[in-house]
Amino acid sequence: MTLFRRLTGARRKSWAQPEFWSxxxxxxxxxxxxxxxxxxxEDIGNDFEGYVQGAxxxxxxxxxxxxxxxxxxxxxRFAVCRYGLDGRPGDLKYTPGIELLSRPWSNGTIGELxxxxxxxxxxxxxxxxxxxDDLGRIGRAARGGPGERIVRLRPDWVTIIIGSRKDPEDxxxxxxxxxxxxxxxxxxxxxxxWGVISDQQQSLLLLPEDVCHYSPIPDPxxxxxxxxxLTPIVNEVKADKAATKHKLKYFELGASxxxxxxLDKEITGxxxxxxxxxxxxxxxxxxxxxxxxFLAGGATVTTVGSDLSQLDFKTTQGAGETRIAxxxxxxxxxxxxxxxxxxxxxxxxxxARRRFADNTIRPLWRMAGVALESLVSLKKPEHLRVDDRDIxxxxxxxxxxxxILAQQAAVIRQLVDGGFDPDASVKVAKSMNVxxxxxxxxxxxxxxxxxxGMGQFDPETGEVLPGDPAMGGQPAGGxxxxxQQAVSQPKPRPQPGGAxx
Length: 501
Prior knowledge:
The protein is 34% helix and 11% strand. The chain has helices at residues 3-8, 48-56, 60-73, 99-102, 110-124, 234-252, 269-283, 313-328, 332-335, 338-341, 346-372, 395-417, 422-431, 482-487; strands at 37-38, 41-42, 78-82, 127-132, 149-153, 158-163, 179-185, 204-206, 212-214, 258-262, 300-305, 382-386.
């Protein structure tokens, strides 16, 4: 079988998981959710439309957390650096090979590209992109072509294809020799409903080096794909939406208290069951909450709760919001959630901002830079790194960098004053490795104005005093050496009026 026929998988089945928001809490009903794979195909685990419609567009907390990540993540600019022999990055510079990132498509910006990356990663766990040009060339063939641009591949239409030398016909995804051999892009056919893949679709096969695959959170049940941070907190999102709806119903229906109904003792069992069924149908559930009760037949009503304060509503909903923010990697005070604002001070906000930048945004930038290298033209030793010098969100980090630079300058000054080579002193200040000083001492101290054994200057006359014979200098009363003669001439003294006589 040819490689193309193996990749298209005409004889294989592929599993599609049920929509995200329709999943029941009992995962035993969906045994394929944690391992949606067949043969050498690995599909995305969660329903993209379900996350978009069920979380991003209908949960204020989820939207706020994604927006906070997106705004901070989109502030980055990328530059090129080369790593030294010690593995440390060198100086940043801008080359023509990365200009595509600044204008990824017509009227597009690097901020829009990074926003799309963050949005897809939060909702689907994966971001896929490739390059095309006006001649229809794709991937590396489009490098430098007319109208070259970056094209985002919708993540739920991408399938990772895995190949293996042991079983080229139907490789197992966890074979130790298996690797990613292609990405298959399956957009819906023309005329079909969005998100529904028909049999008439035209699949696009892309080699791994032609695709930018960014997946910062790995899916533990899959080998090569990523996982959305929303996956572990599905129940938290559902609970927060239910609490919000509960609160809305409370105000829409006049804030009526919840009631308990007691029936007359003469009511028979069948009548009671019929009454209970009718009551549940008309009054049970969030949608029927707080409706006015009309009772007959001797039924009595008892108030169970009068307002939301008895439920400690703020604390209950606030705890759920905090867990959602924790999963997103955004401190509640940054998002503006209630539990974060209760302890909000300038000091706390600064600490939260530092935690958000150092533990969430910077690692994402580092991984995104590596993923984007497949879309630009770089020389072999070059790599992409984020230039964060002009990012306002990290302005306090620049103050810390200035303090570190001042400390490094003090270390360099001390080492140079101690007689060490200036270049070696700079290396020590940067690497914090004193081994760089080995063999780099000049043998002199900065306070020595003359070589050893030549004596000292007389501060009044400017003449050189006789050297110490023990230091190898000219003994007292002997003839001065040529070096001593050169420096023993008295310094001219300034005369009144500014002229030297």
